[in-house]
Amino acid sequence: MYWRLSTFYLFHFASLGVLVPYWSLYLKHQGFGVGEIGELMALLMATKIVSPNIWGWIADHTGMRLTVVRAGALLALVTFTAIFFVEAYWPTALVMVLFSFFWNAVLPQFEANTLSHLGEQQHRYSSIRLWGSIGFIVMVAGMGPLLDRFDAGIVPGVMLALFVGILGASLLAPRLDGAPHALNAESLRRVLLKPQVLALLAVCFLMQASHGPYYTFYTLYMEAHGYTRSAIGQLWALGVVAEVGMFLIMPRLVAHYGLRSLLLASLVLTTLRWLLIGHYPQSLPVVLAAQTLHAASFGVYHATAIALFHKYFPGRLQGRGQALYASLSFGAGGALGSYYSGVVWESLGAEAAFVIAAGLSAAALVIGWRWLKE
Length: 374
What we know:
Largest sheet: none
Helix content: over 70%
Structural class: mainly alpha
Number of strands: 0
Number of domains: 2
Strand content: under 5%
Distance between the termini: 27 Å
CATH topology of the largest domain: Growth Hormone, Chain: A
């Protein structure tokens, strides 16, 4: 079961390792301007707000969670193939909306499937999820030399191969017998009105919004302080390597400290990370230390948040719980983060943007400390 679950994460996050850093290069290769590229990339974020909730509702009401994953993977593959036949702005936008609508649907439902399989052994989740980080690292590092040798026109071909891998992994994934949603009849509205659930939603939204300056401008920020692009790439990789290391030890940490304590610790360390990056970009030792804190700001945070969503949204609500996590944090929180970081960066400067980021993660810490329960 371990490898049948891990393989899906490997291919899914490998595709993310191509799409996030290199899709804009492909769009530039196609002749789109900076403004058009920004608009097209924003479509990927917009579908992430809507898509997981629609597919989560379908999965929870049919009980066929893995079928939804497989259908989404197949439809993402089929619709993505149209990218090879379009060149103009609007046809490209339509293809991106279609394939990302299906692609963004599969992960939350697969997360729910994985956690259901783990049952009482949910501390093993991080050892399965770490293969997603490995896939991301391999593609981020491997695509660089490929793009030095070939032009960005190869990006869709690599993405298509990874989409085939996602579909194949979903077909091999183990399916639960029976309908887990039948074990719980509590309404979604009642769950959402619980203080600890509202607190978790707020924490995840603010946490992801705090990542805005980092995900949007970190490369440009470090380049402005004299770092080469090769060195900046190594800094990105260092963060994900630290994340993998954290996933390896998370089962022991969860068993010893519990989910709530670890989530609060990740918020503390995330706040420290943004302050270090914002105030000391010229100091390589500080920058290296800040990158290793990615182990907390993503590794610990993600592993604990996804487990808490699984606990708070039991039975028939599992799919919509994971969908809410994806859409509210990575969708809405990510969109807000990208927006405010651009506005603040332009008007007040980079340091102010990272201070605001630290303020957002600190606010999440206060909310979590006061209202979050395990």
